[in-house]
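Consider this record:
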Amino acid sequence: MDQLEIGQMSSTVQSAFGWHLIQVLDRRNTDVSVKEKKKQAQMAIRADKSDAAYQDWLRQLRDGATIEYRLEQTP
């Protein structure tokens, strides 16, 4: 595939999934793996912030909660 020119089609290629024809329609100029790594890092940061906000919310709920014990008096 790397040796094909844009618009060129390969001869038949066999893989574990069968026989294939490959046609190069365009080439990317940027490294997709860098973009993917950046996206994964952003998602991890967002998940950490979300977890911290959730833990803070739980802490606020616990701090504001009151427990009242009532013993019923039987006549």
Q: What stands out?
A: The chain has a mean pLDDT of 90. Strands lie at 13-15, 18-20. The CA atoms of residues 8 and 51 lie 50 Å apart. The helical segments are 32-64.
